[in-house]
Amino acid sequence: MNGLFLFLATFLAATIEGVEMAAIVVGVGTARGWRSTILGSLAGFALLTVLTTVLGNTLLRIPIQGLRVIVGSLLLILGLQWLKKALLRIARPRTRSKASVEAQPLSPARIDWYSFVVAFKAVLLEGLEIAFIVVTFGAEANQIGTAVIGALAALVAVGGVAFLTRRWLSRVPREWLRFAVGVVLTAFGTFWAAEGATVRWPGGDWSLVGLLAGMTATAFAFLALLRSHGAASIAKS
After folding, report:
1. Are 112 and 36 in contact (CB under 8 A)?
2. Is residue 232's pLDDT more than 60?
3. What are the strands, taking DSSP E only, across the chain?
4. At CB < 8 A and 24+ separation, what contacts does 193-200 make?
5. CA distance 51 to 49
6. For 46-105, what is each residue's pLDDT tens digit?
7. pLDDT score, position 139
8. pLDDT over threshold 60, residue 154
9. What is the rounded end-to-end Cα distance, in angstroms, of the chain?
10. Residue % of the chain over a pLDDT of 70
11. Residue 110 φ/ψ, nearest 5 degrees
């Protein structure tokens, strides 16, 4: 494998993993606040750096399948909880006032452990997968340096796009943003947990597009049911 081909292969593979990471981090940061999300991301990167530096090639021995099941299951649970709250508040506007205290941002001096943990897990899991890509591709071609450069270039590119879109996302109504992040967490959680349980998704990571579309359609169907049920209750009263 020549240097250019190795760079492109690593760049493209790392870009896919980086997009998955950025989708969660940007969504959670916009909806819950950036301070705790950034701290969680930095903690994930710090642990990832230590693991990569200390373990090196033995990194491939980490049971990534088990880690996917654990992280995926937790993200699935959190995503469903968040999606449920968003659906109820969108369908029944009166519930928003009852949740006004919860919706207020935390004091800058406090840590929002929800966003911290979600960002930490997303960065750690996707970062480990990128590290596996670098070690596998680089070791096979005996060009670890080129593989590292390709992965870093992918992360810079994805990070730049995420940085540019954060202001646009901040204009989305909070409840609809919660809705979108809930769908994303649910889809990614389902994908990772099933992948960890040795499920082979058709098309690999591209099946996430189908999962996101299916989750979105299902969420809108539930929203329509909630709205119709609410309208029927008002009519009876």
Report:
1. yes
2. no
3. none
4. 193/68, 193/69, 193/72, 193/73, 193/76, 194/72, 195/65, 195/68, 195/72, 196/64, 196/65, 196/66, 196/67, 196/68, 196/69, 196/70, 196/72, 197/65, 197/69, 198/65
5. 6
6. 988 888 777 766 766 767 778 788 878 888 888 888 888 888 888 876 544 444 434 444
7. 67
8. yes
9. 72
10. 84
11. -100, 155
Q: Are 29 and 37 in contact (CB under 8 A)?
A: yes
Comparing CA positions, the residue from 57, 36, 38, 35 lying closest to residue 46 is: 38
Mapped onto helix, strand or coil, the DSSP state of residue 35 is helix
Measured distance CA(156)–CA(148) in Å, rounded: 12
Q: How far apart are CA 186 and CA 199, in angstroms?
A: 17
Instruction: Write b or e for each residue in 132-142: b if 16 or more Cβ atoms lie within 10 A of its Cβ, otherwise e.
Output: bbbbbbbeebe
> From residue 177, how far is each of 26, 171, 181 by CA, in Å?
11, 9, 6
Amino acid at the residue 204? G
C-alpha 10: how far from chain center: 21
36, amino acid identity? S
The CA-based diameter of the chain, rounded to the nearest angstrom, is 73
